[in-house]
Amino acid sequence: MRIRSFDEYRVRGNQEAMKMFERFLGFRCGELSDDQLRSELSNIEAAVSTDQMIASMIKRMATSGAPLFASWQERTEIPALMASRFPDAAKDIIERADRVCAFQFDLLGFTSLQFGRPINWHLEPVSGRCAPVKHWSQVPYLDPLVAGDKKITWELNRHQFFVTLGQAYCLTGDERYTETFMAQVCSWMDANPPKQGIAWASSLELALRVISWVWALHLFAGSPRLFPHVVQRMLKSLLTQGRHIETYLSHYFSPNTHLTGEALGLFYLGSALPELQIAEKWKALGLKILLQELPKHVREDGVYFEQSTYYHRYTTDIYLHLYLLAKAQGMLLPILVKDRLLLLLDHLMWITRPDGTSPYIGDDDGGMLVPLGVRSRNDFRDTLALGAAVFRQPTWKHVAGEQSPELLWILGAKGLHRYDNLTIEPPQETAKSFGQGGYFVVRSGWSAKSTYLMLDCGPHGAMNCGHAHADALSFEYSAGGTAWIIDPGTYTYTGDAEQRNYFRSSQAHNTVTVDDLSQSLPLGPFSWEAIGSSQAGALIDTGRWVHFTGQHDGYRRLADPVTHVRALAFRKTDSSELAGSSYVVVHDCLMAKKEHRYASRLHFSPACQVAPGTSHLVVSTEAGQELLVVTVVTDGRGLVATPRMQIEDGWASSCYGLRLGAPVLVNSWEAEGICSCTTLLVPIAEMGNRAVLERVASEVESAAEFLNMPHDVVRALAKVLQASAVKLSPVGAQSLR
Q1: Is residue 446 part of a domain?
Q2: Residues 167-192: pLDDT tens digits?
Q3: What is the residue range of 509's domain?
Q4: What are the φ and ψ backbone dihedral angles of 617, each rounded to 5 degrees?
Q5: Chain centroid to CA 221: how far?
Q6: Does residue 298 fall inside a structural domain?
Q7: Does residue 405 have a cis peptide bond before it, meaning omega lies within 30 degrees of 0?
Q8: Minimal CA–CA distance to 75: which of 237, 220, 186, 270?
Q9: Whole-structure pTM value
Q10: DSSP 3-state assignment of 229?
């Protein structure tokens, strides 16, 4: 209690008091009357009816000369551009909208979910659980026995498919989409009276919902079937939801993307609905919070403070929308907003894999701010493309690619044209340290087949580390167009406690475990019992190699403490060398006094097949790519040996709620005292002849000094490589099997 501030007690106390007023006195728990709505409207003359005011508002949305987003004014140009430039994306939008009309919903990693007819807005269909309809503060949404996986129910209640319906209407002019939108929004208001049920239990969910409603209203504004009485009722609900967000801002509950997302929701409402008297207050409050939180949430190196790449993308979207909304209204923002946005976007560029997807470091919740296209959830390039168009950055466009239909729905035809005219320039650097965030990225280049390595050696998280994973010194590796070694992702938050703990554990990451324990120990779905800390060294470029050393103390809590030090070396290439010669050496040193059980894990992508040999492993894909993995260990006496090699069935989750089987290589051994494990990753299929593999064997010794690698280990690695090279045919590595 001593660490809580007076302001926290004041805010939390006021919120608890308001909950009591709502529960026992019914305060703000009913739908606004027509007279109450009229009293909330700004500058309405006595001679003007509420109906006339609503009709005027709809007309403004349909014809405004100063829209918040250019696409809202350029509706007539979008269908032709989508048909000529992005026909597949247009088809996907219409098909998804048609499924919504048929009461089938694609949410998170689930497809064609059904919630009944009419929609049961409180249902979680995977578990069959139905959250109770009572005061929102009394809904135990974290209890899977009551609510199932609340993320699924919340995703439905975000109403982001209303935006998809609006897009489909703009593309086709089919009034069926308007009628579906009105029927479903009225169904929701009937089933979710103010303050009742799970849809009111998180202020962030309300914020995302009101943003969806604002977008949908503008996309449908030109429809003759958008009835004013429905819009009037929606306006009443938007007022109530906005006040709820304002009252229950997550200043001390979840002051992360919950708070910034809620603030953006208020800024959206204030900007999009100037007819409301409270509009300017909401806009000012939202802006104040977003400016206050920016330097806390985004470190000076551009990394989001919760150590989650997915929430980093969320934060980038939130501040991009703030930037665009403010610019459309002629508002001057502090230079800090642009500076941190540039850093956020630059980090997104660096972490993007050569295949265009992004790694999931930390939690992935599967959601989006405003989904305007149909793409993989681990593909963040639409955000990067938007940033490139807004700030005219050719290097970001190089990574984002030329196909980004989402740009058209935000920036309109002129914005898309500006992006088209932007030159494409690959970044000049190929190695980058994000010192405060603890991420280190090395690449052989910026093509789709470049080699890529990303290492995590940063803080465990922020606040209660709710979105962190026990992933210190874990890494990802791609080469030849294949993401070979990946972070398995998140899969679930509250739907399955066992799976939640597994996906957060060290066993689910590419690092070393001691005595079958995780570096950090979870305590519930969003907190930790024990937390390890990391210490990172510098990323050093020697000309031929780029190398890094870091360590963590997660196993210092043991009766016999163990310190894990990991050194990685990335072999650089130049234009005169074969592309396939970019390989990686990973050297782990475990420092202890007594005997322990150790296991080093490599999690491969679901596209990989694994063929173990006696002293090596060959990983392959159907496309013909292959990766050679060689591992040796030293015991406490310094004797070199081959560890026990085992292939386990693991999981990979490319989106929340979705998991696919994926192979995991587990190298295990026991040792007393100081020991080491050294792994060599060589993309053999690209090399094409055994001479290159023989050269790798001769080069490994040059990395020994800065990796602090014993010469006995170097000789053992070279011996295995030379033996493999003898078996390697002149045209590839197939005979290694």
Answers
A1: yes
A2: 999 999 999 999 999 999 999 999 99
A3: 431-736
A4: -135, 140
A5: 32
A6: no
A7: no
A8: 220
A9: 0.95
A10: helix
